[in-house]
Amino acid sequence: MFDVSMVEVAVIALVALLVLGPEKLPRAARTAGLYLRKARASWYSIRSDIERELAAEDLKRAMKDTERSLLAPPKSHAAPASAPDTGEPPAARDAPPVRD
Prior knowledge:
Layout: H1 6-71, H2 90-94
């Protein structure tokens, strides 16, 4: 979670020992650990709820897509109607008319 080296942890522990003293330090460490565990558990709970909701949305979207594809009328595979044969080459027939 945090990028903390052992030297930094040792400095924090030394400062805590100097500030709190040897009598209060174990109790403070237990309290900090308790709150850290509660925060981590809350974070994992929120994260799992969000992931569950996203998975449900993906499932709903997939079900709607499948339903649409099943209820859609079948596409005909007939050849498209061609333009009437005017005797001109296809490029000339598709080109826009020239205006003088």
